[in-house]
Specification:
The protein has one domain (about 15-215): TIM Barrel, CATH 3.20.20.70. Strand 4 (about 95), helix 4 and strand 5 form a beta-alpha-beta unit. It is built from nine helices and eight strands. An eight-stranded parallel sheet has the order 7-6-5-4-3-2-1-8. The relative contact order is 0.16. It is globular, with a radius of gyration of 16 Å. Helices cover about 40% and strands about 15% of the residues. With about 220 residues, it is of the alpha/beta class.
Length: about 220
């Protein structure tokens, strides 16, 4: 079991497999806590909760709480997407911000120095800007075509390699990554990634997470 602290970790020590738990992607009839536990048991090492449905904070917190509880049980870092007002109530280890969300500096002022902040980036310039501003980690993509954000053009593995080689902070490629293409990520020297559908929509959540971890860890 790993510690759930994030800030202060050296880049190589950050979790390998990052699940973005997207509420809209939760299969009908599937329990959020059960899915989270299966994912963690399969090898997920960090979980972000994302719900873009616009529900009131109270509902958002209620939905997120079951996921957060499982993360705490297993010592896995829990990250809040966008909702800076949910970080303290959920005692989250991290906050993730997109390009159109609160700025990193504003987010840091709101959550303090102990919460890790990740930034979604889509090109080298954005990645450099986020790193210079003090981001703790980056999301980078979309790597491949994705149904979650179909309008996002794939950035390509060559650009991922450039970002990962230039910047010293952890970079999590995201977007359309699954067992059929994660090897392309590994081939450019990146041994971590963030996923949504590849785990959340899998017939066997634990098995899907385990297979991804095995690919990311192979010959490391």
């Amino acid at each position: 079991m790993m510690t759930d602290a994030l800030r202060g970790l050296n880049a190589p020590d950050w979790p390998v497999l990052y699940l973005v738990f997207d509420w809209a992607t939760l299969p009908p009839g599937m329990d959020a806590a059960e899915l989270t536990e299966e994912a963690i048991l399969g090898g997920v090492g960090m979980v972000q909760f994302r719900d873009k449905s616009g529900v009131p904070l109270e509902v958002w917190l209620e939905r997120a709480a079951s996921v957060r509880g499982v993360c705490r049980k297993h010592g896995v870092p829990f990250v809040v997407n966008d909702r800076v007002d949910a970080v303290e109530p959920l005692d989250a280890e991290g906050l993730h911000l997109g390009q159109d969300d609160l700025s990193l500096l504003e987010g840091r002022a709101r959550v303090g120095s102990e919460v890790a902040i990740g930034i979604s980036t889509h090109d080298l310039a954005q990645a450099r800007t986020a790193a210079a501003a003090g981001a703790d980690y980056l999301g980078f993509g979309a790597m491949f075509p994705t149904g979650i954000k179909p309008d996002r053009m794939p950035v390509g593995c060559a650009l991922l390699r450039s970002v990962a080689e230039e910047l010293e902070l952890p970079v999590y490629p995201i977007g359309g990554i699954g067992i059929g293409n994660v090897g392309q990520i590994v081939a450019v020297g990146v041994r971590r990634c963030a996923v949504i559908s590849a785990v959340m929509k899998a017939a066997g959540v634990r098995a899907a997470a385990r297979e991804l971890r095995q690919c990311l860890d192979a010959d490391a």
